[in-house]
Design brief:
CATH topology of one domain: FAD/NAD(P)-binding domain
CATH class of one domain: Alpha Beta
Bound molecules: flavin-adenine dinucleotide
CATH architecture of one domain: 3-Layer(bba) Sandwich
CATH superfamily of one domain: FAD/NAD(P)-binding domain
Shape: globular
Oligomer: single chain
Largest sheet: 7 strands, mixed
Number of helices: 16
Number of strands: 21
Strand content: 15-25%
Helix content: 25-40%
Amino acid sequence: MNQPIKNIVIVGGGTAGWIVASRLAAKHQAQPQSDITITLIESDSVKPVGVGEGTWPSMRNTLKNMGISEAEFMRECDATFKQGSKFTGWVTGEKSDSYYHPFVLPQDYANSNLFHHWQEIGQASSFSNAVCFQEQLCEHGLAPKQITTPEYASVANYGYHLNAGKFAALLQKHCIAKFSVKHIIDDVIKVNSAVNADIASVSTKNNGDICGDLFIDCSGFACLLLGEHYKVPFLNKQDTLFVDTALAIQFPYETENSPIATVTQSTAMPAGWIWDIGLINRRGVGHVYSSRHTKNSDAEAELSKYLNVNLDKTEIKKISLNAGHRSHSWEKNCVAIGLSAGFLEPLEASSLVQVELSAEWLCDQLPATRSTMDIISKRFNDAFTYRWARIIDFLKLHYVLSKRTDNDFWIENRQPDSIPDSLQESLALWQHHYPWHNDFDRSNEIFASASYQYILAGMGFRTQSNYLSSNIENELAMKNFTLNQEMTTKYLRHLPKHRALINQIRQQGFHSTNTN
Ligand SMILES: Cc1cc2nc3c(=O)[nH]c(=O)nc-3n(C[C@H](O)[C@H](O)[C@H](O)COP(=O)(O)OP(=O)(O)OC[C@H]3O[C@@H](n4cnc5c(N)ncnc54)[C@H](O)[C@@H]3O)c2cc1C
């Protein structure tokens, strides 16, 4: 039990496998005297899922901690800046129906609950425009920083849109060139147990048995180690989150100078929604829908109508989704990260951020010995059980607040038996109490109360509180509304167009490479 953990084996070379390998290598193989070995095995015959093009701002720290330059990342992965999501048609489906969930927090968020004051002053402008300058940047096609802003620093908080295949390739190159990650291209065909039921090794087709102290299951939906070997139950959440199919395509811009959207555009459809993501050289567009509520041919027709083109000659990738997650991610000496741990749906890009958080956890708490691993795995499982529940609540919120009646998909989404108790409880509370810090108070909350405020306000939810705010609170709120207007004016004047900045970064890199 006191044997040190030195040999880490990662099964799977999709985005999850390479993010984990890069983070672990940068942290634990950077010193020449390190005796940690990392081996990544990936199959040549099972291709990575190859989608997953929207990230959270957390990706900036993830890349920085790997030691990758932001300009190199942007060039190699056709990456652009993502400043949040724009939801169109989610409330009523009418033409004017849209709202933003930006990445910038409401003004002075630590001290002032502007959701409350915005309701009290009569809502002259949308919540996101009243409390945050970012919607205006997006509407004007502006970048979240300047060429002189240091790498990974921001004027407005941002994540990325990226080409998932190129991203995995960049991380692979980085792991092998900069660190000593061993890369084996082979199929894992068997999992071999030790006497204590740990995994002792995995057998491969052509490279024999690969032994390890810690096994990381990044084998995607196959979930070879945690699912197939350990039989850890899969908790199906399709009764809550109905979409079960995705049709994904790559779509060209009209011209090479077409503007690039700087938000993920999420447009509601009769039985699901369409994502639209702008990379430098193409858009990634996909229709996610519930096959219980629409036919594949109708879903394809909706996609074609959205893009205003005939898709007969376009390659459409069809992906089956099964919303849910494993009951726990860490069993014995095996932890599942990425799609093997679970997947709900692409709304709000909650998957890669969980991979990042898992990798971060492993970096900080790589078990020193087998005996400490059980303590760490218990805490890891507690944290991720909590996270899955919070993500499910947040995604479901988008459907619950809709007033659409054009398809049973939307009507059934509002049935109480499809809504988790925890979300029903929060909504009951927010009828009378404004959502605020105490609602979600763990470190590294993926969707904190600010995210809830943007969705609740954007979708027309209003709190009826009996409590009046104090004069001090009112004065602070008014100051913050004014400050936000001033910042909006200032940034609209000074920030460059999104495509212009991306082109400049690709040609010259950033003018300052110091990171903040
Ligand atoms: C439609 C859709 C849209 C999405 N959009 C987003 C988004 O916008 N933002 C976001 O954060 N996430 C998104 N995701 C999730 C995102 O795609 C995944 O989190 C990410 O790609 C990580 O996948 P993975 O590496 O876990 O699995 P995969 O990419 O499937 O990789 C699995 C790996 O395991 C290997 N493997 C399998 N079997 C074996 C074997 N027997 N032996 C050896 N190796 C094996 C494969 O070769 C492959 O390398 C989306 C997912 C889908 C389905």
